[in-house]
Amino acid sequence: MYISNRNIGNNKNYTLRLLNDEYLEEIQNLCNNCSDYYLLDKGSVADSDAAQKILEALPNGKTYDDQFNLGIFNKSNSLIGLINIIKDYPYSNVWMLGLLMIDPSERNNGLGKLIHKEIVNIVKEENANKIRIGVLKDNINALKFWNSIGYKLEKETEIDRGNNIIKKVLVFNYSV
């Protein structure tokens, strides 16, 4: 898969890059800036090792060759967003979008839709036919976004976030 300095669509203002440990500080800053997500998810701001957790988290049965952590960089070369996507999960030809996090200062300007189009392009290039995502039921803005671009509800489930925190999650699919 070609990712290195890949433009997002025809827009040369944003590029995608594979993330690794060299970007830990920038990823952690992004996590800290996106405290709204962490407050919804865990009831507290991002842990001091949130960046490391993003890079290391893997679903059962998957390897790091199956997972892509992509940084969204602006024209100033600042990390303004992050995509975590896992190929062939939970089924063959389905890619799981584990996380799409955009800095609050970059939201509500069409960037999310632009990023989604690029994710669709990547998934198509890899011959997959579906994108799957789990959205916290409490995340009203995210639910509006995913519904607005054509994601279809598959089911409602629960996840255990530890410390007696059980979250309701809506699972959506998008056919590419």
TrEMBL record:
Coiled coil: none annotated. One of its GO terms (molecular function) is acyltransferase activity, transferring groups other than amino-acyl groups. Residues 14-176 form the N-acetyltransferase domain. InterPro entries: Acyl_CoA_acyltransferase, GNAT_dom. It holds the Pfam family Acetyltransf_1. CDD domains: NAT_SF. It comes from the Bacteria. PROSITE patterns: GNAT. This is GNAT family N-acetyltransferase. It comes from Helicovermis profundi.
